[in-house]
């Protein structure tokens, strides 16, 4: 309980202080934002501050800050420190600067920002990765809420025919949310969804507080870092597993979406940075709830989706638990809809397809949803399909975040500002994603192939990659610097 409370203090105090520092580094002013200057009634729509904040929160808070921490707490109480520290220094910083840089560039999506500040070569690589991530995110956020609805709400087998009916309903909502103006559906239903989200998070938080410190202790041996039940290494696996509670590349696509609806740059810290802090709070609550459960009644190998229901009912009773489960179902749905919407905008920007015409929006949506359905069918029909989908989703998610941090570092260095605040987390996460994919079975299995124990070779490759990333930032920030400054100053 002590570490849990210390972590919450770090999240609150550290978040307020560092958020203000990040705001000072960027320097928001009173210039006209894209929501006003480029208003088109579809994607560029000025909305109220509270609505932008709520939509941003619901966009970024999928199942990641719940399922990730539930799995991450198996590494021990260290999660109560790494989640808030990472959220303050990396995740919130990532979301804030991506949103603000986009706002300074007419609400451009990250691929276009990559091309401007880093170059077309990097942009081509990034496009492939981010499009894959958006598809995987959309599919994951059809699969997980669908299964939760069938299992926890309807009480049916997730392999029954009903599951495809539920998938179809969720998909239909995604299609509508992708096609219609952002304030027509998303802006109207999110306040209702937000109520469920807040109730579920507060319910778990209060339940953890009243449980008492006796139930919050290491899951296995070890005072701070526990021996993972399946032998996973804390670094890098923890930071791939607990992605959305600490940092998530997916958030960048959502921040650029909301950059088109914010009417004042001075709202940026509250809209981008602070909403990520709230996601960190959600992650902390579910990590604590899972720890209580694992130390009392649940086996360590209980699937994370089942832990959600058990935690909800334990702390909130049957009725309150049902509300909490609905809140958890809402989270992925409110991320999946904007994942597909963001993908539509990215493709439209890449190929200069005007999105004011409904016919063109429909065409792009068809292109997006056909491969999404194919991936969903594979994941559901294959016994290991979803596990494979989730692992690649986690890795790709963090890899995309590295690109965004590199973009931020280059932007800040070009403008003569403190770029180290972005370069430091970029260095760490470059090491994390490279060492992970080098070692993992879904990657190169490098250590196993070379007959080495642990992560020996993978760690070395990770460090080398991180150093090369630093050199890349220095080189990229000097390329076309004068021209970029001229264009930015013209805005």
TrEMBL record:
<feature type="transmembrane region" description="Helical">
    <location>
        <begin position="125"/>
        <end position="143"/>
    </location>
</feature>
<feature type="transmembrane region" description="Helical">
    <location>
        <begin position="315"/>
        <end position="340"/>
    </location>
</feature>
<feature type="transmembrane region" description="Helical">
    <location>
        <begin position="457"/>
        <end position="474"/>
    </location>
</feature>
<feature type="transmembrane region" description="Helical">
    <location>
        <begin position="233"/>
        <end position="251"/>
    </location>
</feature>
<dbReference type="InterPro" id="IPR051605">
    <property type="entry name" value="CstA"/>
</dbReference>
<keyword id="KW-1133">Transmembrane helix</keyword>
<keyword id="KW-1003">Cell membrane</keyword>
<feature type="transmembrane region" description="Helical">
    <location>
        <begin position="272"/>
        <end position="295"/>
    </location>
</feature>
<feature type="transmembrane region" description="Helical">
    <location>
        <begin position="189"/>
        <end position="213"/>
    </location>
</feature>
<feature type="domain" description="CstA N-terminal">
    <location>
        <begin position="1"/>
        <end position="142"/>
    </location>
</feature>
<feature type="domain" description="CstA N-terminal">
    <location>
        <begin position="167"/>
        <end position="311"/>
    </location>
</feature>
<dbReference type="Pfam" id="PF02554">
    <property type="entry name" value="CstA"/>
</dbReference>
<feature type="transmembrane region" description="Helical">
    <location>
        <begin position="391"/>
        <end position="412"/>
    </location>
</feature>
<feature type="transmembrane region" description="Helical">
    <location>
        <begin position="73"/>
        <end position="94"/>
    </location>
</feature>
<comment type="similarity">
    <text>Belongs to the peptide transporter carbon starvation (CstA) (TC 2.A.114) family.</text>
</comment>
<keyword id="KW-0472">Membrane</keyword>
<feature type="transmembrane region" description="Helical">
    <location>
        <begin position="361"/>
        <end position="379"/>
    </location>
</feature>
<dbReference type="InterPro" id="IPR003706">
    <property type="entry name" value="CstA_N"/>
</dbReference>
<protein>
    <submittedName>
        <fullName>Carbon starvation protein A</fullName>
    </submittedName>
</protein>
<keyword id="KW-0812">Transmembrane</keyword>
<feature type="transmembrane region" description="Helical">
    <location>
        <begin position="163"/>
        <end position="182"/>
    </location>
</feature>
<feature type="transmembrane region" description="Helical">
    <location>
        <begin position="419"/>
        <end position="437"/>
    </location>
</feature>
<feature type="domain" description="CstA N-terminal">
    <location>
        <begin position="319"/>
        <end position="434"/>
    </location>
</feature>
């Amino acid at each position: 309980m002590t570490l849990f409370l210390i972590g919450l203090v770090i999240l609150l105090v550290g978040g307020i202080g560092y958020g203000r520092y990040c705001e000072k580094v960027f320097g928001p002013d009173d210039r006209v934002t894209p929501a006003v200057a480029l208003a088109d009634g579809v994607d560029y729509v000025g909305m109220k501050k509270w609505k932008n904040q709520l939509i941003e929160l619901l966009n970024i808070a999928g199942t990641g800050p719940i399922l990730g921490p539930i799995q991450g707490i198996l590494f021990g109480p260290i999660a109560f420190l790494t989640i808030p520290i990472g959220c303050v220094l990396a995740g919130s910083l990532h979301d804030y600067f991506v949103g603000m840089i986009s706002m300074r560039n007419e609400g451009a999506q990250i691929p276009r920002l990559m091309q401007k500040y880093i170059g077309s070569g990097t942009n081509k690589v990034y496009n492939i990765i981010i499009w894959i991530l958006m598809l995987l995110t959309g599919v994951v956020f059809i699969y997980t809420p669908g299964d939760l609805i069938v299992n926890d709400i309807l009480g049916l087998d997730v392999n029954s025919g009903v599951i495809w009916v539920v998938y179809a309903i969720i998909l239909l909502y995604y299609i509508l949310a992708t096609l219609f103006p952002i304030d027509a559906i998303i802006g109207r239903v999110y306040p209702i969804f937000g109520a469920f989200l807040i109730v579920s998070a507060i319910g778990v938080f209060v339940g953890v507080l009243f449980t008492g410190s006796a139930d919050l202790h290491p899951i296995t041996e070890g005072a701070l870092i526990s021996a993972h039940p399946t032998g996973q290494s804390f670094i890098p696996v923890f930071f791939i597993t607990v992605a959305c509670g600490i940092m998530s590349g997916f958030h960048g696509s959502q921040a650029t979406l909301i950059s088109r609806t914010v009417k004042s740059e001075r709202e940026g810290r509250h809209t981008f940075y602070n909403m990520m802090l709230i996601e960190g709070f959600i992650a902390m609550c579910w990590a604590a709830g899972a720890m209580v459960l694992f130390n009392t009644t649940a086996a360590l190998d209980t699937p994370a989706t089942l832990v959600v229901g058990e935690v909800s009912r334990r702390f909130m009773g049957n009725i309150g638990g049902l509300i909490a489960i609905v809140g958890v179902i809402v989270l992925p749905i409110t991320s999946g809809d904007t994942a597909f919407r963001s993908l539509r905008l990215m493709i439209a920007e890449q190929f200069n397809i005007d999105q004011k015409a409904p016919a063109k929006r429909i065409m792009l949506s068809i292109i997006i949803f056909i491969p999404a359905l194919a991936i969903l069918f594979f994941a559901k029909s294959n016994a290991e399909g979803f596990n494979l989908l989730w692992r690649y989703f986690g890795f790709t998610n963090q890899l995309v975040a590295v690109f965004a941090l590199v973009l931020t570092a280059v932007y800040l260095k070009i403008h003569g500002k403190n770029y180290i605040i972005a370069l430091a987390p970029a260095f760490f996460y470059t090491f994390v994603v490279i060492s992970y994919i080098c070692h993992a079975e879904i990657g190169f299995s490098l250590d196993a192939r070379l007959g080495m124990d642990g992560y020996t070779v993978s760690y070395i490759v990770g460090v080398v990659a991180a150093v090369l990333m630093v050199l890349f930032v220095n080189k990229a920030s000097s390329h076309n610097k004068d021209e970029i400054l001229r264009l930015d100053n013209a805005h």
